[in-house]
Specification:
- This protein is an alpha+beta fold and 168 residues long.
- The protein has one domain.
- The chain is 42% helix and 10% strand.
- The protein contains five helices and four strands.
- It has a four-stranded mixed beta sheet.
- The longest helix is centred in the last third of the chain and has 22 residues.
- The protein binds zinc ion (ZN).
- Zinc ion binds next to helix 3 and helix 4.
């Protein structure tokens, strides 16, 4: 099974600490503002429309995300998990780092894709592949829109949907 993930573009620190709840009040409101701005970017770059509800965003140590989405260490630094929310590795800084902000935008796209009728007719593997392809495309459109030279690369080969295709 393949879950959405964005791999870290830089090595994670040797250890990361979860933020203590008492330290996060000011950061959470900043993160909320960033999330709101990213929703506006997604709306400008795609047909998705936010319903005004922000998904929960959890900043947790990198290894906690790996445990959630991988069977073995996998260097995943961000993930959207339906019915839970978005998990961001604590070493990501979406408030200050454009690339990390783009990773959060990628996961927000997955949040908006969840349950969208345009994916309803696809086989599960093809559905995940199209969602991923679209999230990468919007992520790159966002990077271009903020004049970043960085681009993320979608590897279609990560999705082996041939089994599905053979059943036509
Ligand atoms: Zn993804």
């Amino acid at each position: 099974m393949l879950l959405c993930s964005v791999c870290a573009t830089h090595a994670p620190p040797a250890f990361a600490q979860a933020l203590a709840p008492s330290d996060t009040s000011s950061e959470v409101s900043d993160l909320e503002s960033i999330t709101q701005l990213l929703f506006e970017s997604i709306q400008a770059l795609s047909d998705y429309r936010s319903n005004g509800t922000l998904p929960p965003i959890f900043q947790v140590p990198q290894h906690a995300i790996e445990v959630k989405v991988c069977d073995e260490p996998c260097n995943v630094s961000a993930a959207y998990i339906p019915r839970e929310g978005i998990y961001l590795a604590a070493n990501l800084d979406p408030i200050r780092e454009p690339l990390d902000r783009a990773a959060l935008l990628h996961e927000l796209v997955h949040y908006l894709q969840q349950g969208h009728p345009k994916f309803a007719g696809l086989a599960p593997c093809e559905r995940e592949r199209s969602k991923e392809q679209e999230a990468y495309a919007i992520q790159n459109a966002y990077l271009a829109s903020i004049d970043s030279k960085e681009r993320v690369i979608f590897y279609a080969g990560d999705f082996d949907c041939e089994g599905d295709a053979a059943q036509h």
